[in-house]
Amino acid sequence: MRTIDLSPLYRSFIGSDHLASMIDAAARNEKQNTYPPYNIELLEEDKYRITMAVAGFAKDNVVIEVVENTLIISGSKEQAPDESRKFLHKGISERNFERKFQLGDNVKVLSADLENGLLHVDLERVVPEAKKPRRIEIGSQLFENK
After folding, report:
1. pTM of the complete model
2. What PANTHER family does the record tag this protein with (predicted)?
3. Are residues 44 and 110 in the same domain?
4. Residue 119: which of 43, 53, 47 has the closest Cα?
5. Of 57, 72, 84, 99, which residue is most buried, by most CB within 10 angstroms?
6. Are 1 and 15 contained in the same domain?
């Protein structure tokens, strides 16, 4: 993965050092935490899907929560060593995990499904009418003077 130099952000965002720090911290955290792998897909203009590879985990082992604007997906399994099994190669990880995704304002989780070792979480950004752009015709009067 390429390293991104974020120092120009610190120079150009006056009073927004917090934003640049969050981006920098997210980039560092992404390098450390790579399990389980996931994709983020744009399905339509305001619809998204997170697909996460959770091989070996059943529905009962995976918990999906939304706390404020953070989507938290965690998986845990009983880690009892099985002495009867002898692996020549063990490439399928069975460790517990927790992934956090920062959701934008007005992003809602629609559904979640676990099929063939892939967890699909569908999201939609719902913009309220008050925040949608409006076209104002020239010569129109928006407010009545009383």
Report:
1. 0.66
2. PTHR47062, SMALL HEAT SHOCK PROTEIN IBPA
3. yes
4. 53
5. 57
6. yes
